[in-house]
Structure formats: structure tokens, C-alpha cells
Amino acid sequence: MMKKLFLPVIVLIAVLAMAVPAQAQVYKSAIGARLGYPLAASYKTFFNESSAVEVYVGFRNWSGYGWFSVSGAYQKHAPINGVEGLQWYWGLGASAFFWNFKSGYFTETYSSTSIGLQGYLGLDYKFANAPVSITADWIPTFFVNGYGNGFGGGYGTLGVRYVLN
Questions:
Q1: What is the pTM of this model?
Q2: Average pLDDT, integer, range 113-137
């Protein structure tokens, strides 16, 4: 029964989504946190309805190693028709990572600095009746140098921000 209904329901959702007109950006700027990898303080601001810049400062401490990072990204947003307040986005950015770690059984501490080039792919939802925005994204990273040199595979975060309008 469910298999027979699956395709018609998907087609109906797609038709309804195309019938709803596009919407403009629903907030100007927001401040909050990225939860996950990295745990970070974040600020995002829009220059127009589709272009935004996000900057964030993150940290991680795990089993003998830790890092501090400073990141910035340019993001392009587009509405998802049919869901008011929901947008998808993509973008490019860069980060500087400052690493500290202990090597195996030794007590020596090593440090390194890495530069990461990043891509962004995510969803951004602004609640209609509250000054809150939530995001979920994937950030594949290529480390140019230092610890973690090469493709880092990417990481994802959930973001919660207070809208400043």
C-alpha cells in the first residue's frame, strides 16, 4: 500500500512546491552558536536577499588533541518553495586552524597551524513568530598545509541563532 502511494505523494508535493511563489530573505543578521564539529560562536549577515557572509570562531578538545579555528564564508541563499522561512544555501570559505596535540605515550606537546578551504551546503530556517534561526549544513574541507593536510572529508553542524532585526 505504501509503495503505491509513494510516487503520487512525491509528485503532489513537487507540484505544490512549484506553485508557491518565491519569498524574500526573512532576516538581516543573526548571532548564535554552531553545535557539532566545530563548536563555535557565529555571526551571519545578509548583503541582499540572497548573499550572506558568516564568520565564526570554533574550538574542539578531544582525547589528547584540540584546536581553535577562525572561519569566514560567503553564502548564496535561495528559498525552498512551499515552506515559508526555509532556504537552502551553498558557499565557499576559508579557515585557520591552530592545533595542539600529544603524541602517543609521550608527554611532548606538538602544535601546528593549518589553512582550510571549505565548501558549504545547508538549510536555513527562520521561525515566523520567534527571532530564531536554525541551520544544518555540511562543510567539506581541504587542508592546504599543516596537520590534517589534504581533504578532510567535511563536517556538519547544527546552528541556532538569535535574529537581530
A1: 0.77
A2: 94
